[in-house]
Amino acid sequence: MSDSRTPILEAVQLSVGYGRIPVVREMNLHVHAGEVVALVGPNGAGKTTTLKALGGYLRPMSGLVRWEGIELSSPAHKRSRNGLSFVNDTRSVLRRMTTRQNLKLARVDPGLCLGLFPELEARLDIKAGDLSGGEQQMLSVGRALARQPKLFMADELSLGLAPMVTERLLQAVRAAADQQQVGVLLVEQHLNNALRYADRVCLLAAGRIEFDGRPEHLVQNRSSVITSYLEGNSAGLRSIGHDGQAAGESDEET
């Protein structure tokens, strides 16, 4: 059944790239309130470029971006004010400032962040640069979600993190979607995570969306997907059973 609601964010025939070279071509993508959408694909497919364009950091070559049905051309800082929170893959904390100061500068209620990640309470007066990688990512995500955005985007949320930390982050994101109706767009390197936490998976290959559907449908078509688009991540997809659960996984610990 199609969803007749107006998406929070929508890309319509969006092409974007660097200079005159398009990286993403004629993309159609949408995210509704309360929905977690995972954008997956091989390295170089255009996933990060997509987020930068949607976030207002790159100008489209053609096509358009809509915010709640209205065409969007504002820069990144204005999109942020309108309810878009974006966590990139660099753990964008201010390393010389404490955890508390990072939250204060972002004008968010520390209690909301600690409600998501109580582990940070004992680290409030520690410089962000002295936090572990997992704690820095909790601070980044907690700060973004504490702003109570309409849309949350994250690029490689689990990069370099231990499975337990990744689980905590994704649980918080899933809870924001379920409880606060935040729309979520995740670029995720681990396909297992995407299948477990997303409502929809969009497969990007060579700058084009080649699959857009529910995780279980991707699992059912996993042989053709592996052959055509995800050869570099085939082990992760083969380890998924038809119920969408991982048979086993391992991550680098930080």
Explain the overall architecture.
With 254 residues, the chain is α/β, with parallel strands linked by helices. The chain has a domain at 9-90 and 150-238: 3-Layer(aba) Sandwich (Rossmann fold). Helices cover 34% and strands 24% of the residues. The protein has 10 helices and 10 strands. The protein has helices at 47-55, 76-81, 99-105, 110-116, 133-146, 163-180, 191-197, 215-220, 222-228, 234-238; strands at 9-18, 21-31, 36-40, 62-67, 70-72, 84-87, 151-155, 183-187, 200-205, 208-213. The strands form 2 sheets. It has a 6-stranded mixed beta sheet with strand order 6-7-8-3-9-10, sandwiched between helices. A 4-stranded antiparallel beta sheet has the order 2-1-4-5, covered by helices on one side. Helix 6 links the parallel strand 7 (151-155) and strand 8. The longest helix has 18 residues, at 163-180. It is globular and about 45 Å long. The relative contact order is 0.17.
CATH class of one domain: Alpha Beta
Helical residue percent?
A: 25-40%
Strands of the widest sheet, in order across it, are 6-7-8-3-9-10
Order of helices and strands: EEEHEEHEHHHEHEHEEHHH
**What is the rounded distance between the termini?**
42 Å
